[in-house]
TrEMBL record:
CDD domains: HATPase_PhoQ-like (cd16954), HisKA (cd00082). It is found in: Membrane. Gene3D superfamilies: 1.10.287.130, Histidine kinase-like ATPase, C-terminal domain. SMART domains: HATPase_c (SM00387). Its main location: membrane. PROSITE patterns: HAMP, HIS_KIN. The lineage of its organism: Bacteria, Pseudomonadati, Pseudomonadota, Gammaproteobacteria, Kangiellales. This is histidine kinase. The chain crosses the membrane at residues 21-42, 185-208. It catalyses: ATP + protein L-histidine = ADP + protein N-phospho-L-histidine.
Length: 461
């Protein structure tokens, strides 16, 4: 009971549109990029400011060194006031200097230094003489930059003394600059991100416009307002729209084929039904002969139904499996003789010995059943069928001694629904089916005048 509502909720959940997906994904990527870029820019700015601080304090060290003088080894003199930068002479100015001897004992400090050496001893790093270092330290809850340099001093007697020069600068101005830069950076990056999102929204709307147009056209096709999608689409969508159009055309063609197949089925069943009807009306036929005729024609009808169903679903089947021509033509001739026995028609069949044709059996009976039926329908008394191999092709000719077919309508009768004489029974279907099947096998149909005086139909495969 509990699973069904959950499944229904999942089924009713509307999936995100492409535009929403792109905007969401782009926003995530953009936010990640903005955050990463802000950290990179901030770190680069901090590094630049720190390097500038190091160089400035290095210069301050050299100014102090210029005022220093060694009275004797281990006894370095510096004036109480340093003229180069007045901040050294102002108490708690934020910039102070200290000098230690090689035993790390304080021997001088500037007037600005407010440190109690006993309570707040400045930690000295391990470094080599002649190597300046910059570090951040915290003293008395205040952060400082500490510049440290070990200077070697050689007396006239050649004695070398080491002195630790330390310059401390309050880190608060540095932090204030970084904070102001960070605020400005986030402000402008946020504006940039919002602007980029707005531009991306406009660009995606324009980029996805062909897809929206395709959806609109599909809805119009569903309503019957359009027949196919237009061909004015970007290159990336052309293959898709062409396939959709092809699918629509195939569906319509399939629907048309179903309708035509019903007509073809009715048309094909006429001959076996006529044979059985003639046999039933012929009182000279005994029960055994009547049963044989009906059994044969019912089997033929079953084949016709199976064949037409196959054509309805898959079209003409071009099966390159050869069949023998003579027995098939003899069977057709026998059936049609019974159908048109009241006309006392003579059907002459002349087939080259052992002639084979590469046609599906159902297609063969459909084609030549229609052609022979038309010949019997229009002939006065005689139909002649000749099958032979000519120049590598199987050529089957059907002639009659009827009125013939005028030259100006020979092409027209091959179209569906076209009939030569509206007074003669028929639906105008048979020859269109013949044309379709022959075309599927890349065959040819020629209509001419017969030596017998009527029409001549020549089919080549």
């Amino acid at each position: 009971m509990t699973n069904k509502p959950q499944q229904q909720v999942k089924a009713n959940k509307t999936p995100y549109s492409l535009q929403r997906r792109l905007l969401l994904n782009t926003s995530i990527v953009l936010v990640f990029f903005i955050v990463a870029m802000s950290f990179v820019l901030l770190d680069s700015y901090k590094t630049g400011i720190r390097q500038a601080t190091f160089e400035r304090l290095y210069a301050q060290f050299y100014s102090l060194l210029s005022y220093a003088d060694e009275l004797e080894p281990g006894d370095l003199f510096l004036p109480e006031e340093i003229p180069s930068d007045k901040r050294f002479n102002q108490y708690n100015s934020g910039l102070s200097a200290l000098v230690y001897d090689e035993t790390e004992s304080l021997i001088w400090k500037s007037l600005s230094a407010r440190y109690d050496q006993e309570q707040h001893k400045v930690p000295l790093p391990l470094s080599l003489p002649g190597e300046g270092t910059l570090a951040e330290i915290t003293m008395d809850d205040t952060d400082y930059f500490r510049f440290h340099y070990i200077a070697e001093w050689e007396s006239p007697e050649g004695a070398i003394s080491l002195y630790h020069f330390v310059i401390l600068e309050n880190k608060r101005p540095f932090d204030q600059v970084i904070s102001a830069y960070r605020n400005q950076l986030w402000f402008w990056l946020s504006i940039m991100a919002l602007s980029l999102l707005a531009i991306l929204f406009v660009v995606m709307r324009w980029t996805l416009r062909p897809i929206r147009r395709a959806v609109k056209e599909l809805r119009q096709i569903e309503k019957g307002l359009l027949s196919t999608l237009s061909d004015q689409y970007p290159q990336e969508l052309q293959r898709l729209t062409e396939n959709i159009n092809r699918f629509i055309q195939n569906e319509r063609h399939q629907s048309k084929r179903y309708k035509e197949t019903l007509g073809n089925l009715a048309h094909s069943l006429k001959t076996p039904l006529a044979v059985m009807n003639t046999a039933l009306q012929n009182k000279s036929n005994d029960a055994e002969e009547l049963s044989s005729i009906c059994s044969e024609q019912i089997g033929r009808m079953d084949q016709i139904v199976a064949y037409q169903l196959q054509r309805a679903t898959s079209g003409p089947q071009v099966m390159m499996r050869s069949m023998e021509v003579e027995p098939a033509l003899d069977k057709l001739a026998t059936s049609l003789t019974k159908v048109y026995q009241d006309k006392n028609i003579s059907i002459e069949v002349d087939v080259s010995k052992g002639l084979m044709i590469a046609l599906n059996e159902g297609d063969f009976y459909e084609v030549f059943g229609n052609v022979l039926d038309n010949a019997c329908k229009w002939t006065e008394s005689k139909v002649r069928v000749k099958a032979q191999r000519v120049a590598g092709k199987v050529q089957i000719t059907v002639e009659d001694n009827g009125p013939g077919i005028p030259e100006n309508v020979r092409l027209a009768i091959l179209s569906r629904g076209k009939r030569l004489d509206e007074t003669v029974e028929g639906q105008g279907i048979g020859m269109s089916v013949v044309t379709e099947i022959v075309a599927a096998y890349n065959g040819e149909i020629d209509i001419d005048s017969s030596e017998l005086g009527g029409a001549l139909m020549r089919l080549s495969f």
